[in-house]
Structures are given as structure tokens and as C-alpha cells.
Design goal:
Layout lengths: L1 H16 L9 H9 L15 H20 L8 H26 L10 H16 L6 H12 L11 H13 L12 H23 L8 H24 L7 H12 L2 H12 L15
Helix pairs in contact: 3-4, 4-5, 4-6, 8-9, 9-11
Length: 287
């Protein structure tokens, strides 16, 4: 009996030393870990304008998020909320997988014989992709449970100084992106797609920033503007859309993709109006 008593004391001491209170993170630790994960449900969809590739990327993002959430051991009082949160991400991953299978069964736009058929094939794929529900019902259940337990898991907005510093770092990286000289239409398309993809990558990184409410609209305008222009470039690079034998169309395309300065000046003006200093990038074009 004495040995059992000593053993019990040793086991109790070991459990206490290892945090043996049922396991799981503290509230502060949990909020910090989950809050550091960008909200995939609210992200601006800054993705390539090609349904299969876009859906593959979105599904991969949710699969990685599922793995990250599975590795987190929540406090006991939010175990059910965490389970709902995880279920929401799993449901979205599954929905994206179903949409991906449907899009893959559609005609390939690159195999179309005419521009009209190509545009129709792209539109069909995008329609399927857009029908994926933005938020599964499990997500609302999770947020409600977190709120009832006094937990905040949404990413916190950045203070002005922090936002300006990070945004300027990312915007500055856009500056070296240029449309190079292209002797043929094929080369021009390749350059357009390259630049478009680089812009998309920068826009996605900008989209991960959480702005304060006063500049939320300006931030969204900046991200969506970059996305839109980048998607135009990638679309042209992938599928064409300009008559290479028409000098006016070719010259007009070069002029459009040669510079993004006017757009960025407008976006930066939105920030200035709200007292924020976000630098204007310069994107030069050649040819």
C-alpha cells in the first residue's frame, strides 16, 4: 500500500509538471495560434483565371489548413467549437474537390476551335467554381461557440504603423516587375502571363494583411485592383484574345500592359485620404 501511495504521488507530480490538466493550449496560446492563420473564407479570391488551376490551389490551401488545425490541441472549454471550426474547413475542402471534378469534365478551353467556344468553355468552368458556397454552416456554429466562450480567433487588425510598414514592403516588390521586349505574339503572351502571375502572388500576400476599419475599403480596392489587372494579363497569356495581325490591337495591348502606374496612383490616393502612407509602385514596360 505504501508503494502504491508513493507511486500515486510521483504520477501526480509528473502530470502537474507536464501540464496534466487534460491537455490543450491555454486561451491565450490558442487565440494566438488560430488567430495567426489567415481567414481562407474571407480572402479576396486573387487567383489565376483558369478554373482547374484556381480550384486546385484553393483546395490545397484548405487541405493545409485542415492539417494545421488538426495539429492544434484546443482548451477543453472550446473543444466543440474547435471541432466545428475544423469541420467547416474539411467541408470546404470537400466541396472544392467536387467542383474540381466537375470542371475537369468540361471541355478544355485551350482545345476550342474559336474564340467564342473558348470563352464559353472558360465561362462554364468559372460558373461551377463560383457555385461553391463561400461558407459552410459549420463555420457559423464555430464562431458562435467561440464567442459564447469568450474566445477571439479572428486575425486582429494591424495598427497603422505596422500596416504601412508591411504594405509598403510588399508594394515595393512590385516595382521590378516589367513587361519585357517581345518580338512575337507568343513571346508577348509569355511575358504577360509571367508578369500577371507575379502580380497575383503579391496581391495574395497583401490580402493576408488585416487592415484597420478606416482603410479596409482602400485595402480591398488595392488588392482587387492588382488582382483584376493580373488576371487580365494571365488570361491573355494563356488564351490570347488579340488579333496578332491587327497592329492597332497589338499596340493597344502593349500600352495597357506596359504600365500599371495610373491604377496604383489612384489606390495610393485612397490611403492618403485616410492619413495612411502607402507608396506608389512604378511598373515600367518595354517595347
Amino acid at each position: 500500500m505504501r508503494r502504491l501511495g508513493v507511486l500515486a504521488i510521483v504520477l501526480a507530480f509528473t502530470a502537474a509538471a507536464c501540464g496534466g490538466d487534460g491537455g490543450g493550449l491555454s486561451q491565450e496560446e490558442y487565440e494566438r495560434e488560430v488567430g495567426a492563420l489567415p481567414n481562407l473564407f474571407e480572402d479576396v479570391r486573387c487567383e489565376v483565371p483558369e478554373p482547374v488551376e484556381a480550384l486546385e490551389a484553393r483546395r490545397a490551401a484548405f487541405a493545409a489548413r485542415v492539417a494545421a488545425l488538426e495539429a492544434i490541441e484546443p482548451p477543453e472549454e472550446v473543444a466543440d467549437a474547435h471541432a466545428s471550426f475544423l469541420a467547416a474547413h474539411r467541408a470546404q475542402e470537400a466541396a472544392l474537390g467536387t467542383a474540381l471534378e466537375q470542371v475537369r469534365a468540361l471541355p478544355d478551353p485551350r482545345a476550342a476551335d474559336t474564340r467564342e467556344a473558348q470563352a464559353e468553355a472558360i465561362a462554364q468552368g468559372l460558373l461551377v467554381a463560383e457555385q461553391v458556397a463561400p461558407e459552410p454552416p459549420e463555420l457559423a456554429d464555430a464562431y458562435r461557440s467561440f464567442a459564447e466562450a469568450g474566445y477571439r480567433v479572428e486575425p486582429s487588425a494591424l495598427e497603422q504603423d505596422a500596416y504601412e510598414e508591411r504594405a509598403n514592403e510588399l508594394v515595393a516588390e512590385i516595382s521590378p516587375i516589367t513587361i519585357g521586349d517581345a518580338a512575337t505574339m507568343g513571346e508577348l503572351q509569355a511575358e504577360a502571363e509571367r508578369v500577371g502571375r507575379e502580380l497575383l502572388a503579391q496581391a495574395e500576400r497583401l490580402d493576408e494583411l488585416v487592415p484597420a476599419p478606416p482603410v479596409a475599403e482602400a485595402h480591398e480596392h488595392l488588392v482587387l485592383g492588382i488582382c483584376t489587372r493580373a488576371q487580365e494579363l494571365v488570361t491573355f497569356g494563356r488564351f490570347g484574345g488579340v488579333d496578332p495581325d491587327d497592329p492597332a490591337e497589338t499596340a493597344g495591348l502593349r500600352e495597357v500592359i506596359a504600365t500599371l502606374d495610373p491604377f496604383f496612383e489612384e489606390a495610393a490616393g485612397d490611403f492618403r485620404d485616410r492619413g495612411y502612407d502607402v507608396d506608389v509602385p512604378e511598373v515600367a514596360g518595354a517595347g
